[in-house]
Amino acid sequence: MEDPTGLSSPIGQILIFAGLVAALVVGLRAWWYNRKR
User: Fold this and answer.
1) Disulfide check for 3: which of 8, 20, 25, 36 has CB 3.0–4.6 Å away?
2) pTM over 0.70
3) Half-sphere exposure of 31 (CA within 13 A, CB side)
4) Which residues, 6+ apart, have CB-to-CB distance to 16 below 8 Å?
């Protein structure tokens, strides 16, 4: 059974993990910037 989204492949999991980390970093930077003002 093929997974059209590629979530079952290691590369897909790495891309998802990288995306989550990037979103978390951006969110923390925005929160930190708003908190310091």
Assistant:
1) 8
2) no
3) 6
4) 7
- DSSP for 1-37, written as a single string: ---TT-TTSHHHHHHHHHHHHHHHHHHHHHHHHHHH-
**Sequence letter at residue 5:** T
How is residue 1 written in tokens? 């059974």
Residue with tokens 């093929």: 2
> Under 8 Å CB-to-CB from 5, ≥6 apart: which residues?
12
